[in-house]
Amino acid sequence: MDIGVGYGSQRGRLGRQLARAGGKAKLGGGVLVLFFLWLLLGRKKSPATQELAQEPNDVQSLIQEHEIRRENVQYLSLRPPFVNPATLAMINYDNGGNMVMKKDSDYVRLVPERPNSVGYVFSRLPVSLQDADSFEAVVDFKIHGQQTRISLIGDGMAFWLTSQPLSQGDMFGMQNDYRGLAVIVDTFKNTPGKMRDNRGANSFPRVSIQSNNGFAGKYNKDDDGTATEIGSCALHRAYNTRMDAPSRMRVRYIRSSGYFSVEFDILGNDNWKTCFSTTDLAASLVPETPYVGVSAETGELFHNVDLYGIEVHSLKDASGGPVQSIDALIDRLDDRIDAETKQHEAKRRHRRFNKPQKTTTRRTASRLRRSEQRAKQLNKELYNDERGAVGYFFSLVWRLTTYALYTAMFVVLAYIGLLGYRVYRDKRKRRNQRGLL
């Protein structure tokens, strides 16, 4: 059957109108349909993409309330002037690679803006037993350069907590058969197309938390470590922040409760945002007395990575011992607020009407928030969705709708191709007829 001749007479009114329409009109209509489909699908942000999120930080609030004390670990501090003038060696840390230190500078340059460079610093001493059970480390850094397109920079930097100081290697400047944990700031995407699974981010720079127990080659550069990462997030604006203050990374760890968090203050203005947080980190992933290190690497693409300092603090509870349980401390803080609220209300008993106290709201919100987080975690384990069965149902409906719309898009494209073929064939037939006459 020749559908190129007389096909309009066998269709309904709409079909006959389409048949009479010119080729350009049909193509224009198809493009318009595709545009509306793009508005519906293409601009929707994938729910799997995680960015830095402003979240309530229970640990930080406890520190501000003086329920947790921060004691500076002096033997792990790295600050200007960096070098001991008597020995001309770096204070508390060993360095290597292409790292550059300038006299009276407030930073050291781990890698310069040139290809195939490596630079690193590693502490001479590990975090001691009395400090390693609960501590935080803050790294001040800058990633910057002359390149204005972030797709043309690389490779990034890494923060290390390892069982021993590492040697130079091919994993962001360090050996890849380490024992411990690494927080990687990756500035170049090796994975072609969209990442699989993506619990992290498709956009770069991105952060990837990696662990290893001494296996060589566990971290795979070809997939940016997505197959082995514990968690990840996008790190927008980390390159060329155009701020005088350096960016900051803060890592907190409490062994007994499995608490581990990674936060960033990209603009250096004390606006901390959570990248990754868990209360279920296995104690075996962080060495009992970890060494602290920072490294950077460039490949064919490059940028400057400047290190402004490292500060490590041990976290102590009110009695002077290491912090044991975040939940217990939050409950204790809530109980103290509750007691203060009751005492305040007792003084106001003679009044007929009592206004609700802000502290009561704070106590309720704190406990409800933690209860909500536990419920979300349970729903995620059962239904792979924090919203539970309802969220799973609607996500299923959305996926089916998406597949249907993509199918419709394919049909429209196929129809446009068919129309183009018909127009081409009709023109060719008319040209052949004129040649015969």
From TrEMBL:
CDD domains: lectin_leg-like. Residues 70-315 form the L-type lectin-like domain. Residues 345-368 have a biased composition (Basic residues). Residues 344-371 are annotated as: Disordered. The chain crosses the membrane at residues 21-41, 403-424. It is a single-pass type I membrane protein. Keywords: Membrane, Signal, Transmembrane, Transmembrane helix. InterPro entries: ConA-like_dom_sf (IPR013320), Intracellular_Lectin-GPT (IPR051136), Lectin_leg (IPR005052). It holds the Pfam family Lectin_leg-like. The keyword Protein transport does not apply. This is L-type lectin-like domain-containing protein.
